[in-house]
C-alpha cells in the first residue's frame, strides 16, 4: 500500500471494513456542528432596494455602494434605531450593499430576528438616500442643500412681480407702455432660461432624487450557515478526515508485504507460500477486556488494508503447497531432523498455516525411509514485543511462519535475533496468506487429513509432535 496508487477499490474496501468507525465519527462531527450552531445563534438577512435615476457610470455606482455602508450612514441608522447594546461599529459588520442591474443599490441587513433585519435594512436605505441627497449638492450642510430651493422661490416671486408691473403699464395704448411690457417679457424669458441652465448644470437635480423601492421583505428563513448546514458540514468533515487519515496511515506503512522483503528482514531464504482458507476470526487478535470489546465493536481489530482474499483451488491444491515446503525442508538436510516452527503471537493466519504444516510433516508418504522423511516439526508462538524462543533441545533449527504485511522489519529482525540467541538457525521462511475456499473435491489424499490438521492445534503452544 505504501508504494501503490490509491484506487477506488482501496477506498471501497476501507468503507466496508471500517463503516462502524466512520459512522461513529460522522455522528461525532454532526454533534460538533450542532454545538457550533448553539454557540452562534441564527441570523436573518433581508434587502432593501434603492433606485438611482439618471445616467450612472460603473465607478459612480461603486462609490454609492461604499457610501451606503459607510460609517456616516450606518451610525445615523444606529442612532435612529436605538437598539440597546448595539453600536454603529457592530451594525457595520451586519450591513452590506451591492450594485444590481438597472442602477439599483441593494442594501442588506442581518440581525438575530426577522423583524430587526427588516428594520435595519429599511433604516439604512433611508439614511443612505438622505445622506446622498446632501452630498449631491456639494455640501453636507442642510442649510446649503436648501439654497437652490430658496433661489427658485426668489425667481418665482420675481416673475410674479414682473407680471404685476406689466399689468400696471397699461394695455399698450401708448408707445411707452408697449416698450415697457416688451422689456418686462424679455426679463421674464431671461430669468426662465437662466434657471433652466442652472437646473441642467446642477448634479443634484438629476442624481439626488434617489427612491427607496418599498420596504424590505421580512425574511422567512435563516441566513447561511444554518443549523442544518452546520450539522451536515460537521459530519462530512469528520468523515472525510477519517478517510484521509486511514489512507495516509496506509500510505506511510512500511511493513514488508512481499516475500523477498520478509525473507531479507529475517536474514533467511523463502521456502514457499501457503494458503489458508479465510475466516473472519482469523484476522481478529485474541484477547478480552473492555478495550478489546470496544475495538471489536468499532471493527478496528482487523486490518482494512489487506486485499480481499482471492479464490483458491480445492483442498488438494492447497495441500500441494504444504507438501512442497516439507520437501524443500527435507532436501536441505537429507538425514532425520527436528525443527522448531516459530509463529508470531497474535498472527492467527500464520498459526493455522503452521498447524497445517505440522500435520503435513506427520503424514510423511515414506515413513520407512528415514533418510528421505520429512523433518519433525514443533510449533511455538513467540511474542514480537519481547521475543523469547525456547532454547535448543532436540531441534536443530527454526522455521518462521508468518503472514505478509502484519509485522515491521524491526519486529522481524528481533524475531531472528531471538532465534539466534536460543541457538536456532533460521532455516527458512514460509509466508501464509488467506484465500476463499471452494468446495473440496475428491483427490488421492485421505479425507481425514483436514481433521488431523485441526487436531494439531491442541499442540499450538509447544510439545513434541
What does this structure look like?
By secondary structure, the protein is of the alpha/beta class. It folds into 4 domains: 8-40 and 225-251, no CATH class; 44-137, 2-Layer Sandwich (Alpha-Beta Plaits), CATH 3.30.70; 144-201; 259-459, no CATH class. It is 51% helix and 14% strand. It contains 17 helices and 10 strands. It has helices at residues 8-17, 19-39, 58-68, 71-81, 88-94, 114-136, 142-145, 147-168, 175-201, 203-207, 227-251, 259-266, 290-298, 315-332, 348-362, 409-421, 449-455, and strands at residues 44-51, 95-100, 104-111, 211-212, 270-277, 310-311, 338-344, 376-382, 398-403, 426-436. The strands form 2 sheets. Strands 5, 6, 7, 8, 9 and 10 form a 6-stranded parallel β-sheet that branches. Strands 2-3-1-4 form a 4-stranded antiparallel β-sheet. Strand 7 (338-344), helix 15 and strand 8 (376-382) form a beta-alpha-beta unit. Helix 2 (19-39) crosses helix 11 (227-251), helix 8 (147-168) runs antiparallel to helix 9 (175-201) and helix 15 (348-362) crosses helix 17. The longest helix is centred in the middle third of the chain and has 27 residues, at 175-201. It is rod-shaped and about 160 Å long. Mean pLDDT is 80; it is low at 440-465. Residues 4-67 form the Polysaccharide chain length determinant N-terminal domain. The chain crosses the membrane at residues 21-40, 230-249. It holds the Pfam family Wzz.
